[in-house]
Amino acid sequence: MVIDLDRCTGCEACVVACRVENNIPAVGPEEAAKGRSINWIRVERYVEGEYPDVKVKFMPVLCQHCEEAPCEPVCPVYATYRTDEGLNAQVYNRCVGTRYCANNCPYTVRFFNFFDPKWDAPLEKALNPEVSIRPRGVMEKCTFCIQRIRKGEEKAKDEEREVRDGDVVPACVQTCETKAMYFGNLADPTSEVSKLSKSNRAMRLLEDLGTKPRVIYLNKGD
Amino acid sequence: MKDLQPNSNSETITADLLRPLSKPGLGWYTTVTISGLLVLLAAVALGYQFTKGLGVWGINRPVFWALDITNFVFWIGISHAGTLISAILRVTGAEWRRPVTRCAEAITVFALMIGALFPIIHLGRPQFFYWLVPYPNERGLWPNFRSPLAWDFFAINTYLLGSIIYLYLPLIPDLALLRDKSSGLFRRVYGALCLGWRGTQLQWDRLERAVRAMAVIIIPVAVSVHTIVSWDFAMTIRPMWHSTMFGPYFVAGAIFSGIAALILAMAVIRRVFHLENYLRPVHFNNLGLLLLTMSLIWFYFTFAEYLTSWYGNEPEEMAVFRSKVSGVYAPLFWGTVVCCFAIPAPLLAIKRFRTIKGTMVASVLVVIGMWFERFLIIVPTLTQPKFTFNWGSYTPTWVELSLTAGTFGYFVLLYSIFSRLFPIIAIWEYKEGLPLGEHGEQTVVGVPDAELESV
Asked: How far away is chain B from the Cα of A28, in angstroms, using its nearest Cα?
């Protein structure tokens, strides 16, 4: 995935799209104030400088699907692991809820279900049938909309070709008003994300940790 | 300092040390009632937590661990009392250990049982804790042996099993004594537990060999356990967790708090069961010196840890460092330094204050200080993740506080019941140390116990 920070307006449409697509429970304002809200993607806001000379920066942060993910080795039951495609997967059924993965994630993008999931009526009627509901006590996080990846793969298979750009569009990318987000196959050198990742504006979050994130940010770095 | 004259009449010793089993006294009943109520409170809190979910705790994102892991590390730390005192003193043949060993070994087992509860009850889905057990299942799933939590599982189980054996072995001759002195159901139970002990020379030889072997084995096991507990933190990439010296730092802190717990337990036992002739000022003096040593070592480690963080001046480290030293956790941090070093070290260094009362005061402070030290290792790091946008805070709820109070209640309760069923001072080991006595079989009257006092 590639996110162009220079195009991000911080509208948080991606956050809403993700919630709807991935059946993310609403914890309510009180629990959210305690830090229990779940947002697989969030827009971090940073204000630089002193008034009146201020600059507000927005940074959408989601699971970076690191190649060397710190969350993976610490899980005692292999509930989080790397798939053959290079996704960082979270197996809800296997998770016992030690929350160790969340403690070792430098990006703080892992979420815990503190209570049974619930939705205010009539939201519970709008759940996505393709995404499982996570029970209380397990960790969850961005999956890169794995249900859409599978669909795209199947479509490509039906048409007897390789997956190409546009086959898979995660909810956040689909919704982004300013087209600040791109999704594709980084392993395919001809894909748009591959080309963008070679831009001289490209950077990765906390690169010095050596986690090798698969989310690439574009930033002119003024 | 005038010391009490130790008893050396075999019959009197047996009668004295078995008295708690028949006539526990009012103090015992009071203790059991209060601690029982605390356990009840914790049980209610735990039931509530299991029904509603972990949201009833104060944990949140980013503070995913808090009092649960604090209590875990703290109690595993307390469990190091038994190992150090009993095993090391046995291996080195320190004579004054004799009335102390069993008090210490029992602490190990009970503290470990309590500490080991937390990795289970803190799980999001505690009903599946057994998934950490490497058992062959139909899906061919194994635990992740790369995870420090899996290491924990093995380390704690090994230590628990080892320390139960280490408590049990020296209990056998006393169990035989109890069998001979009791009747009915108790006689049958004690009889089964003492494994047909008859006190033959061959049995004594074997027992002593086994105890010696276990004493040697249990020391590296204990060191490894708290090292592995520390690696739960040190293996991560979080500021002020990712530290190479966490292993020895945790082990030193564990032994430190363990000795303090032992001194407190001994002082209570001494008073409640009227064992003033057995747990004498000399024992408190010697343990006080050990506590002083550990206090100095603890301070040295803490100083080294914080100095390197400060000097390195990395922004992420400094955020955590500042929150502890001058920020929101400063009262707790400096309170810990006062409790673990500033008061106990001078108190224990001055011979005049190294009395039973003096060591008790120091021990209470150390136990409190070490609990907060564990808290301060865990929470400040978690409140401050790399991206400042996600910084958080933590306030415990009544559920976590009740569970914490319950651990202390549970420990006291288990210990009280143990001391009611088994002699809390090893009768044979005590008698074995008497001059001229041979396994306490011969009656020795009025011999001053000069050897014990001179240590």
From this structure: 13
